[in-house]
Design goal:
heterodimer; A: 150 residues; alpha+beta; 46% helix; 15% strand; B: 135 residues; mainly alpha; 7 helices; 77% helix; actin-binding (chain A); cytoskeleton (chain A); ARPC2/4 (chain A)
């Protein structure tokens, strides 16, 4: 991950993440799309001063769909706290990370990479835990409610 | 300048597509003889990096894909493949990974892991950075 500072070419005194704007093709590398299977994929787009990683998480059924959306929206809303998270995921994906050269200067690169890999590993576990807790609660509530009719 | 280039491209495209068809017939026969490694080598050899025609690239991709899916023994592959083909193979692997089709992705991931061990990270970076000769 080699990102360096690159002030905007078009506008004076502006410094924008080039991967978001995509104005000059010479500053961008080829985006790679890695699909583990039909449901999960990862898009990595790089440019001279920024890097965008978008993930699509596996969603087996409707409940997982809703849980994933809500959970990841919760995280994205608090993107300020994460710093490398993007507030809105890229079209077609569930969550996006935007890493700029400033992040690389402040934080250690291998730690950033570890963070993202850890995130990818944990997200599946988190979603299944949430799903299990929803099902358990639903069962308990239904049992309590229907007891009165016995 | 670019007009003549395109004119040359069109002629070349037909020639290249015929060449690719010949190659695919050869590869089919090699696969029937249980020689998937030679098949992959033949597929990678005629890679047309300088053409911008999408049809040639897709035609070549189909041929390479067929050879990649037929590979079972990865060790034999790497012991006999020349290093100059590592970069081209890496580009095709990434094209395979973007398809999203499960068996293709599984196979591509398996080969990718071994190829990275062999060729190193530079190979991956060259496939990212090379916008002139894309597959």
């Amino acid at each position: 991950m080699c990102l360096q500072n690159f002030p905007c070419q078009e506008v004076e005194r502006h410094n924008k993440p080039e991967v978001e704007l995509k104005t000059s093709p010479e500053l961008l590398l080829k985006p790679i799309l890695i699909c583990r299977n039909e449901a999960e994929k990862c898009l990595i787009e790089t440019s001279i001063n920024s890097l965008r990683i978008s993930l699509k998480v596996k969603q087996a059924d409707e409940l997982e769909n809703i849980l994933t959306k809500k959970f990841l929206r919760f995280l994205s809303m608090r993107a300020e706290a994460f710093q490398v998270l993007r507030r809105k995921p890229v079209q077609g994906y569930d969550i996006s990370f935007l890493i700029t050269n400033y992040h690389c200067e402040e934080m250690q690169k291998h730690k950033l990479i570890d963070f993202i890999v850890q995130f990818m590993e944990d997200i599946d576990k988190e979603i299944s835990e949430l799903k299990m807790s929803v099902n358990t609660r639903g069962r308990l509530v239904a049992a309590e409610f229907l007891k009165q009719f016995i | 300048m670019s007009a003549t280039d395109e004119f040359v491209e069109a002629d070349n495209a037909e020639a290249i597509i015929t060449r690719i068809e010949h190659k695919s017939r050869k590869i089919e026969s090699l696969l029937k003889q249980w020689k998937p490694v030679e098949a992959l080598k033949t597929a990678l050899e005629g890679s047309p990096p300088n053409t911008r025609d999408e049809r040639c690239k897709s035609a070549n991709w189909i041929v390479v894909h067929r050879a990649i899916m037929a590979i079972k023994d990865l060790d034999a592959l790497f012991s006999s493949l020349d290093p100059e083909y590592y970069d081209i193979l890496m580009k095709y692997l990434y094209r395979g990974l973007s398809t999203g089709d499960r068996p293709t992705c599984d196979q591509c991931l398996r080969i990718h892991e071994r190829l990275t061990e062999r060729a190193g990270l530079g190979c991956i970076l060259r496939s990212l950075a090379d916008t002139a000769n894309t597959v």
